[in-house]
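Pair request: fold both.
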Amino acid sequence: MVLGVRLYSALYPSWGPVCLLPRSFASCSGNPASCCTMPQLGLLHGRAWAVLFGQLRRPPGAVCIGAVHSHSQGTRDLSPQQMVVREKIIDMVVSCFKRHGAKGLDTPAFELKEMLTEKYGEDSGLIYDLKDQGGELLSLRYDLTVPFARYLAMNKVKKMKRYHVGNVWRRESPTIVQGRYREFCQCDFDIAGQFDPMIPDAECLKIMCEILSGLQLGDFLIKVNDRRILDGIFAVCGVPESKFHAICSSVDKLDKMSWKDVRHEMVAKKGLAAEIADRIGDYVQCHGGVSLVEQMFQDPRLSQNKQALEGLGDLKLLFEYLTLFGIAEKISFDLSLARGLDYYTGVIYEAVLLQTPAHAEEEPLNVGSVAAGGRYDGLVGMFDPKGHKVPCVGLSIGVERIFSIVEQRMKTFGENIRTTETQVFVATPQKNFLQERLKLIAELWDAGIKAELMYKNNPKLLTQLHYCENMGIPLVVIIGEQELKEGVIKLRSVASREEVAITRENLVAEIQKRLSES
């Protein structure tokens, strides 16, 4: 073993001495001087030397078998209980998308780097670049919108209503308690195609309301604005056109920073004149309903800007449709909403939960926006060789942030979550009945019934029944010598502990009947 340590040190001198014993070895301290020179180990046989050399080829962190490593920052594992809740959230979101006629779509987890650059403004620095693997510069997708636009252009699709559920990656500082991760899931719905103004946009907002209401997260508000109105405000306030995107990015921080701090960033960091920043402040601190839209129409400066008037006209029409959908009271025209992504061209929106929780026992959890989206009419044209545009509008549901709220609620109320969907457990009170249990469970599986059994030849009946109670399995079928002789199966309700004898040929029908009634 001493020879092995010396050989390891010779191969990898910069790593220093490393213990080659598994952590499970009782006297291993990790220090070669104290535990790797044990005389009782004796000489290593040929096969042991092969194992040793295999260890020598690994990085030192992998040598001690018992070492435990955490996952990378901004990511997490999901337990079976968490997966149940997460899947229910996603299932509800997707069922809403399908109710509105969307088709499913998937795209690769990584794209050509050139496809993603210059699409996200200041956030482009958050894109994960992959190491060059032979000529292609690749990056992990930052969102699901840009890959969708690339798909439309590449396949010359002019009209599509699609949904997409998938992971995205961003190199931002994770805030786990608020559901902010570097790897997270998005659920997107988008409508691509040339249609009459604001009808698809109104449907997107209706979908947002349906999902947030259905998830019962508490009261919420959807902020709405239009990038043309913002650009009009910047123009009439005197912002140079070259600074529009930079100033828009500052305004986008008003949900996290005070106006005083945002103004300081505009002036001190982005070189905007103080008087121009003050004029912007007069606008972006306003919010209201359709009456604010009318007020902006009468504004002496803004009413002179063509872009702003187009945006205000669309918002007025949008509020008419939202009223017909019965959701206008959930919508606020908020001039501070900017949505920092560069590809937005028209209406933008963002849903936030109000601080009042759904239940009195809960503490308010500030997770920021839980859904957002907008119109991006020029993005597809950026991927088309001839620049052909396909107008698009869509929304994205923030699954991780919603899950953070649901998870907190589960902890507050101590809710128990079933991690399996097993409907029937096949049990026996006697020994040597494995073959009969296997034949019986095969019948249940073939009939589409979700069933389990214990992986033991001779399990104790009490152990089997306790397992059913702990896992929330509603029914148990019991087969033994007496049942086999009489051609029946005992069907037991776990909740009431009542048992009835059912003929074997009627067992499946009786189980299906009970499951349909529960």
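--- second member of the pair ---
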Amino acid sequence: MDLSKDASCSPAEDLAACSSLSSGSDYGPIGRFCEDQGAGLSPREDEAQTDGIGAEVEAQRWSEEEDGDDDAFTGGAAGEPGLPPNAGARFRNTFACGRRLHSAPGQLQPGDADPETELQSRRPDIAEYFSSRKQRSVSQSVPGWKLFGKVPPKQSPSKQARIIQQEFEARQVAARCSPTHNAAGQQSRRKAEPLSTTALILQDRPPNLPAKSPEETQRHRQQYEQMVAAAKRRELAAAERRQQLMTQRFRQEVEISNATLVWNQHILPHWDSMRESRRARDLWWGGLPPSVRGRVWSLAIANELNITAELYEIFLSRAKEKWSNLSDTDACFPADGDSLEIITRDISGVLPSLGVFQKGGPYHDLLQSILGAYICYRPDVGYVQGMSSVAAMLILNMDEVDVFISFSNLINRRCQLAFYRGQHHLMLRYFGAFQVFLQESLPHLFLHFQSSGVTPDLYLLDWILSLYLKPLPLEVACRVWDLFFRDGEEFLFRTALGILKLHQDVLLHMDLISTAQFLSHPPDEELLSDRLFSCILATPMLSGNRNWSQVFSSCGDWETSS
């Protein structure tokens, strides 16, 4: 390029040349490219010599393109806020004007306006531009966007939370009162529908294999229909079971709520006069509500030993001292630490399904404190396996001091003391009395046990020591405890007869070893509580005209009589 020739041209001639290029003249590829770019310069010259005002505008244009507002500088639609019409053409000529001004600054005509002043008048003010952006962002006339198209903007004002809640409750009431809702609810109660369909699909053979014969196709079609029908029957049966369980759970919740009201308002305030009433005993049979269970247990066990909170604190401090110093020989703790090891081992296996009594659980230290305080309080009894389960059940329903008082008085009862202290002659009397009622209630099973060599001590010992927490689920054992505190030790052996009656058909076909293993952990069946207590109710503790107390009193040494 001839620089001298370029420098001798006046700015007016240069602008005229640019206008002629942009007006549609065809000067080859370079001319068409310059026409597209809005200037009569090649890209290389434009890149090399863009400076001054043109460089400032270029930087501003690229920064705005990165922000998503490139229409403001690259020629947006006409009438857009913030930019005048033909703004794109003006800014395309800015680069040419800047270059010509830089190349020949002293050759402007007197009548021409100052290019810099003209450029400032053409360039939009920065404050005006940002105010236009703010107006566009605040404006609500532009529709919003969703996944599959535009949606109109929300015009409704925001509502208060109270108004929204009232409208929601009104819609719920209207939906419940609608005939369609009632009809659908009645239909769902009449018949349980399957929750899903089967995934069995009958398909033909692939084309690269021989086709099926008509007989084979018909046979496969029948097998497919039978499989689908069987799957639907299983789904219907499962749905009916779930519906039955939900109905039963709802009924139990209603019964518990009503029973809680009666216990709190009518029975507990008048405990001494209402305890033996028919109304209280009927409610007691159905199980105590969890909210009043601890208080009723505490009143039923009573405090014949007159244990106080101060006495518990004394023995608890002694227990903590012995726990910290196991090397000292004491009546409470042997020097070899056997009691500590037994307690630690038993606590780790107490109600493992809950996970609250194991090491690190919220009740681990409390259970250890109760047991430690008791063996300091009763060193003659000491600790026996099974005590931890009894104390754990009380902890779930009472406070700490009430747990120690109830636990000490419960172990002090005749039956528990005989089994925990290993009083052999009393244990044999209990076993003998139980055999009398077993022969009276279940004669076939009694003869089978006699022939197989199954004695009561094989299963009754664990049942009595754990108060049925070992063989029964927790919720069923809670109900057994409720009635044990109502009827006394008699109900413990009546529960044993109910368990044997429930599983009689299975036990009649078992030998000695199978029977011992089965009765140590009976299966947890569906609706076990109702079935078990139906068997208990059908097993009265009567032998002729004698009740439990009379049979136990007249029963001699079971081992000698046998």
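Observation on the second member. The mean pLDDT is 75.
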